[in-house]
Design goal:
This protein is α/β, with parallel strands linked by helices. Among the domains are: about 285-465, Rossmann fold, CATH 3.40.50; about 470-540, no CATH class. Helix content is about 20%, strand content about 15%. The protein has 11 helices and 22 strands. The chain has helices at about 5-15, 90, 295-310, 315-325, 350-355, 370-380, 400-405, 455-460, 475-490, 510-525, 530-540, and strands spanning about 55-60, 80, 100-110, 125-130, 145-150, 170, 195, 215, 240, 260, 265, 270-275, 285-290, 330, 340-345, 355-360, 365-370, 385-390, 420, 430, 435-440, 460-465. Strands 1-2-3-4-5-6-7-8-9-10-11 form an 11-stranded mixed beta sheet, with no helix packed on it. Strands 15-18-21-13-22 form a 5-stranded parallel beta sheet, with helices on both faces. The protein has a two-stranded parallel sheet with strand order 12-14. The longest helix has 19 residues, at about 510-525. It is elongated.
Length: about 550
């Protein structure tokens, strides 16, 4: 039997989560739900059928069985079960009044056919390996929110059947290997939120037909240029472009929307346009930003460039970067001709960076300039402006192999004065003083301890730490602080979780998704070979899912 203490705990949970229903007087008239208690790991109490007025059930922990009495809960409107050995088809029998179903941790192999009969359904959250959806889904005429989290298999394209849900206001299909938006999507004229993060979409032609779209998530979509179709979405308010290689945001200048690009940016009409170069107050020309994953290293390279361009004093620049605060809408798109970006890796060499003989389009071997020599030449020819080379993952490359004899020339006091003859072209070469070399480095990478001593001596290192103040959602802020405390005590401060993992979280569903699919895999890598340590920290995570 359910105890009075358990019912009191249920009541407290329902109040905190605004679960609809009337206050209860006894078990048969109780109208809220069940939270995940330890004793429910062995199953839901057999007498749950007595709660014949119940409106909502939420079970955060996995249970081994669902009693027969569950089918008697015909008044149930909200259903959240983490997972169970019981078939979902058996659970949904007779629950015709369901309005919200949350089964996003089930990894279903196919779309449950019983769901098609739930015509009162308004919100549906599923984790699926499905590739097809039946036309019967158009029976769900009241469905407003549909979230399908991808499993091991993906649906690969937006099913045309989903486009028949004309009352749909929110559609989320993250990490589903979708590469094209079907023309039928124009039927979803009530759609206000569309999440396509983690998909490799190449054709955005149909996107502009969603006239009422207010929120669009295209993070992790391997986009290098902002699709022009976005400019036609006049009601768009929020646009997430995080973790894409986009450098130019000028196409969005006429839209009044909030952009997320790794960290939030202010409204585009109020973005700060970085001015042309002033006389620099920076004596340090070689700078490395280092820290754990998610602390905003790449983002802060843009802020660093903007501060240098503004002529800010060097001490203030370094202080501002290490404070790691909001970027205040900095836009360096006007400087794109003076900025080059490269990522170091083990196969990257002198011929890629400085110069070397390489095949051209006619398959002939020809001497070609590398990215470093190219930007040095540009800087030498334009002494009135500063130039910037951003090197991501600088510690992953073989520094001696990449820089060669030029490692000495990058020193600030050797610029413009010391000259060498390049081995291939036999031409004299020197590094200009108006070139800044900005690198990023992951502090969790064990190769950081073995980094070339020549690089350490010639660069100024700025450590980036997580900034809890940049996380808005209270639940996300709490779990981030708790996990980082545990990580610091067990592994050290170099392994703490960065704030960018938690910045976009707006509710418990977002938090669950980030913890399950971003934080857990990272922690498993951190604690590889340390089962006891992994179990301890995953226990903290699981308490919040």
């Amino acid at each position: 039997m359910l105890t009075q203490e358990e019912f009191n705990e249920i009541c407290k949970w329902a109040d905190e989560n605004n679960i609809p229903g009337k206050k209860w007087k006894n078990k048969s008239k109780y109208s809220w739900g069940i939270d995940g208690y330890d004793n429910l790991r062995n199953g839901i109490p057999q007498d749950i059928g007595l709660l014949n007025k119940i409106k909502a059930i939420k079970i955060n922990r996995g249970v081994r069985n669902i009693p027969k009495g569950f089918s008697k809960l015909t008044t149930l409107e909200y259903l959240h079960i983490k997972y169970t050995d019981k078939s979902i088809n058996d659970i949904l029998k007779n629950l015709k009044n369901l309005k919200v179903i949350d089964l996003k941790s089930w990894e279903l192999e196919k779309f449950p056919k019983e769901i098609y009969e739930l015509i009162k359904l308004e919100k549906l959250y599923l984790q699926t390996d499905i590739k097809e959806i039946s036309k019967e889904i158009n029976k769900l005429i009241n469905l407003k929110v549909l979230v399908l989290y991808g499993g091991e298999d993906q649906i690969e394209k937006i099913p045309k059947e989903l486009c028949e849900l004309e009352n749909l206001e929110q559609l989320e299909l993250p990490y589903e290997s979708i590469d094209e938006i079907p023309k039928e999507i124009q039927k979803l004229q009530k759609l206000k939120k569309l999440n396509l993060s983690g998909n490799n979409i190449s054709n955005f032609n149909e996107l502009c037909k969603l006239k009422n779209l207010e929120t669009l998530d295209l993070s992790y979509c391997q986009i290098t240029e902002i699709p022009k179709e976005i400019t036609k979405l006049q009601k768009l308010k929020k646009l997430n472009l995080s973790d894409n290689e986009i450098r130019d945001f000028s196409i969005l200048s006429d839209l009044n929307l909030q952009i997320f690009n790794e960290q939030p940016v202010l409204k585009t009409k109020k973005n700060i346009k970085v001015k042309q170069s002033k006389e620099s107050n920076m004596s340090m020309k070689n700078i490395i930003l280092y820290g754990s994953p998610g602390v905003g290293k790449t983002h802060n390279t843009e802020k660093l460039i903007a501060l240098i361009e503004e002529g800010i004093e060097e001490k203030e620049v370094f202080k501002t970067i290490q404070e790691n605060k909001h970027n205040n809408g900095i836009d360096i798109s006007e400087l794109k001709e003076r900025i080059k970006f490269v990522t170091f890796h083990q196969s990257f060499g002198y011929e890629d960076f400085i110069e070397g003989f390489r095949p051209n389009e006619e398959a002939n071997i020809k001497l070609q300039d590398g990215i470093f020599k190219s930007i040095c030449d540009d800087a030498n020819n334009d002494r009135d402006n500063a130039y910037y080379l951003v090197i991501d993952e600088i510690n992953r490359g073989n520094i001696s192999k990449i820089f060669g004899e030029l490692i000495t020339l990058i020193e600030e006091d050797k610029r413009d004065t010391l000259e060498v003859t390049l081995p291939y072209s036999k031409k004299p070469f020197k590094i200009p003083s108006n070139l800044y070399i900005i690198g990023t480095m992951n502090s969790t990478d064990k190769s950081i301890a073995l980094i070339d001593i020549a690089l350490r001596r010639r660069f100024t290192f700025l450590k980036m730490a997580p900034n809890l103040a940049l996380v808005n959602y209270t639940g996300a802020k709490d779990i981030m602080a708790e996990l980082n405390k545990e990580i610091t005590e067990t592994l050290g401060a170099d392994y703490v979780l960065g704030h960018s993992y938690f910045m976009k979280i707006q509710n418990d569903d977002d938090l669950d998704f980030v913890l399950e699919y971003k934080i857990k895999p990272l922690l498993e890598e951190y604690f590889y070979g340390d089962k006891e340590g992994l179990d301890a920290i995953l226990e903290i995570v699981n308490e919040h899912i």
